[in-house]
Amino acid sequence: MFAIMGNARRSVVAALSVSCVYLVYVHIYSSYKLLKANVMSERLPSFVFLYIKYVTRALTRRTGYLHTATTRERDVVYTVLNCRLDTPLLRRFCSAAGYGWDYPDTEYRDIPTCFPETLCRRLLLMVLTDAHFRLSPAGLFRVRQSLKTLQPVDELKKGPFVLQVRVQEYRQSDAGVEVDISLSATSRTGCPVWESILTLLSKNTERLYKNAHECQPDEPAPENVKQIEVNVPGTTGLQCVWFFSGYSPSRLLSLAARLFGSRSQNAPSLWMLSVCLAEIEKHKGVGVITAPVNVTAQFKEPLLVPGRVTIKIWEGNGDQSGTRDLSFHMQQHGSNTSHVMGVISR
């Protein structure tokens, strides 16, 4: 009897040992080796390894401080070749952002303008945890973003494409340190399809971003405004994707916070922008957002969930080509609290 129990115990210990060795090799060692190169092909470091790096660097670096560059400073850039469109992820993104579960199969509709950023989520985490990234990866807040489609995003469906994420510039500001991060998608033919510049802020104080209530848009004439009311659910879905629009450690701790009864969760910035663009397409037509197009957005006050918001849409002044910009503004329903402001232009 004791011999049988002893053999069973040894078998369990052996199985656990093999499992630990396997996990360490797959998630730690292999990921470490992959990060030695800046250009990869399909296979990427595991999220487990990158989260460990995230927590380690968050604990060892204070926010709002630009750390001194090392003597062996290099560009922080990662490129992935032979990428493929993740159709199930696209379906979930479209449903969560308000486009509908069958989007973009509807005729004449392109893949949503914000979607390529979700394909870059692991590359973003690789950049934020890189040894040469000069800010703490924790507590980064998205303050501005520009999006550009040079060709229809549907080009990414036609074959392998290339994704790249690169740190462009650091800037000191009154509120802390800003960093511009470039994201891009290039088609199988080598032509640029989609580009985005994220401006993230690492705060050096607990106060709100000082410009949050400034730069409000000029209120257009009432007859020129389309107002849409949207319910904000308690969960915006796709949390593993939306996490990267906030870069806050609270996203990692949100599950624990909910277990202790906290309900003060914020809607992710990328979700807010995606909802604005989805509503614009529904009410102004597909042509407004058809490539080539430029979208610029500023992110203001955080949006608590659940709740209700009002999205305002209006046409601006035309340029020499006769085209007219389309402005949008998401604000708290029943108040003047601004969450997102943006412009769509040609």
Automatic annotation (TrEMBL):
The chain crosses the membrane at residues 12-32. Keywords: Membrane, Transmembrane, Transmembrane helix. The keyword Membrane applies. PANTHER family: 3-HYDROXYACYL-THIOESTER DEHYDRATASE HTDX-RELATED, 3-HYDROXYACYL-THIOESTER DEHYDRATASE X. This is Uncharacterized protein. It comes from Liparis tanakae.
